[in-house]
Structure formats: C-alpha cells, structure tokens
Design a protein that fits this description.
single chain; 233 residues; alpha+beta; Four Helix Bundle (Hemerythrin (Met), subunit A); 6 strands; elongated
C-alpha cells in the first residue's frame, strides 16, 4: 500500500458558507478567513486497477460569522468510498465545528442573573450536550433540577422537593410534572448509565431553560419596573 499526500493553503479563502452560529439564531453566512486543504491517496500496487485509488479529502478552516463576527474552526472530510447516495456520484461530507454548538440554540443570554452554582451547572451541562456527551448531559439536567430545589430550600428527596416547590407555588403543576420526567431521565443516566437520544435531551434542556427564566431571570428583570406607587396618575 502506497500513500501519497498533498497540501494546499487558502484554496478556499474568501468563500462564504452557511454554518450554524454560536451566537446568532440559526445558520448564518460565514466567510473562510484561512484554509488548509489536504488530499490523501491510497494505492494498492499489488492489486492496482487504474482509477481505483482511494481518495480522502480534508479541509481545515478558520471561519467568521458575517453577522456577529464570531470566529470558529471548521473541519470537513470526505472520501470517494463514502457516497451520499447510490449512483449520485457525490461524496458525503462530514463536518465538525469548534466550539461545538447545537443548531438554533445559543443558551441563556441573562446567565448572570442566575445563582452562581446554578450558572456553573447550567454551563457545564450545555457544554456536555453541545459536545455529544449525552450521559453526562442527562446527569447535568438532573443536577440542575436539584440545584433549583435546594436553592429554594425544598425539603426531602428530589421527588419530594419538586412537589414541595409546587405546593409553595414556585412551580405550576404542569411544570412540576415535566420536572419529574427530567428527574427520571437524569436518574437513568446516573444510575443505569443510560444514554438518551440527543433530541430528547435538547427538549429537556429547553424545558429547564424556561424554568430558570421563570424562577430567576424574569423576577430579577421585573425589579427594575416601576411599582404602582411610582406611577403618576
């Protein structure tokens, strides 16, 4: 087996591509600031058929969102042995973006309004989810729920703490029911080492974000609104 490798610089510099942005909503136009293109050819000289070489292409790019100007790193790879569809003649392209992100998900913008411990757990859980560490993300979601219960001085085991928040009108009955589902999800991850599907965890994270917004962020923002006594009649 003979391997031939070649490399070119900035062949794709200046090109624009649609990529999910870490800060903007959804996919945005990104410009390639710097690129390295590598080609790898594998030839079996003992069983060589003309045109039967295995080619693999790698692209490494520094890209910048043309909206918020955030800079990211993008890596793609493809091979002539990995076709996107039968008879299409097109190779499937694998893409990885750093820092990792979930499409259309930026995370909470008013993170500083959360209690410090909850900030830390939320940030680590979001990173685990973004990077595909699904078991850790499930455990983190449970930890987030328990941290809210503890910060609100709920008593008992977690199942009782959630009910306690409902009884004290911190949670609505509907929200309490949802948190019980997330508690079960987190228990499966922690005690059964169960890996849940990413879309299930994304949905659970959305629910927890709404909870954190309702319990912490909105009340903090409401403090700057004038009280009825401050209003002029």
């Amino acid at each position: 087996m003979t391997i031939k490798e070649s490399q070119t610089l900035n062949e794709k510099q200046g090109q624009e591509i649609e990529v999910s942005c870490l800060r903007c909503d959804g996919e945005t136009c990104h410009k390639v600031l710097f690129s390295v293109e590598q080609t790898r050819e594998e030839v079996d000289e003992f069983n060589f058929v003309p045109g039967d070489s295995i080619f693999t292409w790698y692209d490494y790019q520094i890209i910048q969102c043309q909206g918020c100007k955030t800079i990211s790193f993008r890596q793609t790879s493809s091979s002539n042995e990995d076709y996107f569809a039968e008879f299409s003649g097109e190779c499937y392209v694998y893409e990885t973006i750093y820092p990792s992100r979930i499409k259309d998900k930026k995370g909470l913008e008013k993170l500083h309004l959360l209690p410090l411990q909850i900030q830390d757990i939320y940030t680590e859980t979001l990173r685990a989810l973004n990077n595909g560490y699904l078991i850790l993300a499930g455990i983190g979601l449970r930890a987030l729920v328990e941290s809210v219960c503890n910060e609100k001085s709920a008593e008992g085991r977690l199942i009782g703490k959630i009910d306690n928040l409902k009884e004290n009108h911190i949670l609505t009955p509907a929200n309490a029911e949802i948190l019980h589902k997330i508690r079960t999800l987190g228990n499966d991850a922690a005690h059964k080492v169960k890996k849940h599907k990413k879309d299930e965890l994304e949905l659970a994270m959305n629910v927890v974000e709404h909870l954190l917004t309702d319990v912490y962020i909105l009340p903090q923002q409401a403090k700057i609104l004038p009280t009825p006594a401050d209003k002029k009649l």
